[in-house]
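Quick log. Single chain, no ligands specified.
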Amino acid sequence: MTRKQKIVIGMSGGVDSSVAALLLKQQGFDVTGLFMKNWEDDDNDEYCSSRQDLIDAVAVADRIGIDIEAVNFSAEYKDRVFSEFLSEYRAGRTPNPDVLCNAEIKFKAFLDHALSLGADRIATGHYAQVREIDGLHQLLKAEDGTKDQSYFLHRLNQKQLSKTLFPLGELYKREVREIARREGLPNHDKKDSTGICFIGERPFREFLNRYLPANPGDIVTPEGRRVGRHMGLTFYTLGQRQGLGIGGSRDGDGDAWYVAEKDLQNNRLVVVQGHDHPRLLSDQITAVNVSWISGEAPRTQWVYGAKSRYRQRDSACSLAIADGERCVVEFAENQWAATPGQSLVIYESRVCIGGGIIESARQAPPALPVEGCPPESIAGS
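-> predicted structure:
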């Protein structure tokens, strides 16, 4: 009798990982659930949901008929993810801990633990796909473009992808919800979690205040005119509009204020008016700590798509590999509020080829008026 493949699936208590586990069981795999506890500083906090999440995961496992165990990765998380998270904020950047969590915890610590349990492969409820062509494992976007999570998985390598299944890759979220309801999963109508995993729904500034000191300073325009006070550069990110506290300081046409720069040397937050202000637009982004899923740098004489924010659409670009861990990406269209510390992820059609951490962005030159046509005519056309 042929032995069933053993799959250890990460179960968070949410509907996505629950349906993923159900589908694997229906496909004939030997499935074991694993609930990861990655944060324990706030076990008694009103924002901590890990206890209820574990209860939900166990209830689903019981309904499906699979075993489940809980494992505590909080020490690894604090060492590999949270310390880097704080370090980046101290340096004035805005990190994306979900990217690091996937690379260091869910597809490293979790994978190692699962293999030690005798697993052939692991699985998660991410919306993404894996395809193997001539021995090369590719990371593909999910069929549901509104839920695609390949952006957060771009640092995975060949070994990790070769051991990973994404059962939801070909499904739409509405189908996942319907499967959960039809099969009677107890969490079929559970609300999707939002925010960073260890912060949850809590106010972000309140959370950071526990670990990073506040250092108030002036909010200024690019010309140096003071328009308000900030609570500490740590609490702001480029492109931010809400929470600046300067709504009554608008000039002229009354356009909203946006964060355009963090002046770390002078502890000043530079703001501009208008969503499309030139200070918010860039035509070139330099990324560092780049990693390529294939293990090799891509060819540079090619047109790719890239995004510097999760919800952005891909924008046509070209690559220049500066050195082994740095690349320069030139865009055909201006990019909005490219933020140091965030991830720049690169695609070739539906295939995610890798990416890196945004180091800097070059401000786009102002648009030139059409010859013989005054600027105001262009604006009004």
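The chain is about 25% helix and 30% strand.
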